[in-house]
Design goal:
Blueprint lengths: L4 H15 L6 H37 L5 H13 L6 H9 L4 H25 L3 H5 L10 H21 L32 H4 L21
């Protein structure tokens, strides 16, 4: 796409307004709009011409080898316009390897195909430097990890405790302290000490038998 002198002037003015915003006159606005319409029309015309070129290239390729001269001319023009060769083009050029123009175009198409393959592989593969230079990290107890874990646990339990959420886990009650053992009571020193007579009372003497005990007669 080539711009004329007037189009270049309008383009320069549009770039100046974009870099240094300032009030634009009505004439500048109209010139920019006409330039945008011209660029859009040229883009659409280029797309139509490209579509016609590719359609003619397919027809000439299908009619090989009788259309070798026209096919090689169209292929060279398409490559200059950014066309990337397909496997059918490579097969057709190999079939025309006796033609020096076809041999030169084959080398050019093979180079472009190799570039496309390398670009696709680079997109789907991980560079070796990333995996080779990666080191393993070992977490140590304590430090920031423990502090962060404790802070997150406090942040999770604090709202539930503040709002009384039944779904939250209640805080555990502290264990009750054991009651102190009662100290042994000391003997009451005000109580009188028992005497030996109270502790060991005297034994009673047995009573004497009667003097004339009654006799019983036994039958013979």
């Amino acid at each position: 796409m080539a711009f004329g002198a007037e189009e270049l002037r309008v383009l320069r003015r549009a770039l100046a307004l974009a870099l240094h915003p300032s009030p634009a006159s009505a004439q500048d606005v109209q010139d920019c709009l006409r330039l945008a319409e011209t660029v859009d029309e040229a883009t659409r015309e280029g797309a139509r011409l490209r579509a016609f070129l590719l359609a003619d290239l397919s027809r000439y390729r299908a009619a090989l080898p009788g259309t070798a001269a026209g096919y090689l001319t169209l292929l060279e023009e398409a490559l200059g316009a950014g066309y990337r060769p397909v496997p059918d083009d490579l097969a057709a050029l190999r079939a025309l390897c006796g033609n020096p123009v076809a041999a030169a175009l084959l080398d050019r198409c093979l180079t472009l195909a190799e570039q496309d393959v390398r670009a696709r592989l680079a997109l789907h593969s991980v560079p070796a430097s990333r995996t080779r230079g990666r080191t393993r990290l070992t977490a140590l107890p304590g430090g920031l990890a423990a502090t962060g874990t404790a802070a997150r646990a406090t942040a999770l339990t604090a709202p539930a405790a503040a709002t009384g959420d039944p779904g939250g886990k209640p805080a555990e009650k502290p264990a009750d302290k054991p009651a102190p053992r009662p100290s042994p009571q000391s003997p009451n020193r005000d109580r009188p000490i028992p005497t030996p007579g109270e502790v060991f009372p005297p034994r009673r003497k047995p009573s004497a038998p009667p003097a004339n005990p009654p006799r019983q007669l036994a039958a013979v």
